[in-house]
Amino acid sequence: MPRSVAVVTGAAGDIGRAIAHRLADAHDVVALVDIDAAALEVARETFGGSENFVPIVCDITDEADVALLAKRVGHLGSTKTLVNNAGAARAVSLHDTTVDIWRQDASLNLDAAFLTFRAFEDALKSTSGSVINIASVNGMAVFGHPAYSAAKAGLIHFTKLVAVEYGKFGIRSNAVAPGTVRTQAWEARAAANPQVFEEAKRWYALRRIATAQDVANAVYFLSSEQAAAITGVCLPVDCGLTAGQAELARTFSQSEHY
């Protein structure tokens, strides 16, 4: 019987590593995909150098490179799960967003998911596999980083397109939309502003921000048989951010209304 494979892009980052580690519980092999070879090796070492984790350097915005990725993964086994996790945000405001930034953010955060899905389409059909796209709350509401946000909104819609068109092949397609996640990028902000996490927490209903493990657990659930009837959804992992603003609600409740 062929080995089952999970493919995780952006696997060298905090969230990618957490997802890969969690999916290893239900897959024989996890392909760790990233453009940064050195960071990939560090990620692999965090898993004890296990042969169950295979690092593959790939530029997922390049169609030819993605085709080579799919071919190499095909030699590892049958792809059961594809996680499009790679992403990045650049300009904070629309005014500061150049044409190059807009295109780069669209390429990495949206176009790459299309390229990888098409490259693994046949493999996923053969396994009635699962696609999980890591979107963002930024794709659901306006929280800054406009180019990134627009791309993530597109990714959520792309998720639904795959669910509807490929459901007849048994392929399930879902998205996970994290809010603030405590990663190395946020730790860098905390070094400059030690109160950054406390300031952020007040906007979240649970009074905390998500961890990479929280995101990984959601991905694991959506990839599992427990979610066999779930497709085309976007699951926020945001500690209640998109449910409503508790701080804002308190402000309004304390004000006079006419």
Task: Please tell me about this protein's structure.
The chain is globular and about 55 Å long. The chain has 258 residues and is of the alpha/beta class. Helix 2 (37-46) links the parallel strand 2 and strand 3. Helix 1 (14-23) packs parallel to helix 8, helix 3 packs parallel to helix 4 and helix 4 (99-127) runs parallel beside helix 5. Helices cover 47% and strands 16% of the residues. 43% of the residues are buried.
Task: Please write out the topology.
Blueprint: E1 4-9, H1 14-23, E2 29-34, H2 37-46, E3 53-57, H3 63-76, E4 78-84, H4 99-127, E5 130-134, H5 146-166, E6 172-178, H6 184-192, H7 196-201, H8 212-223, E7 234-237, H9 246-254
Parallel strand pairs: 1-2, 1-4, 2-3, 4-5, 5-6, 6-7
Helix pairs in contact: 1-8, 3-4, 4-5
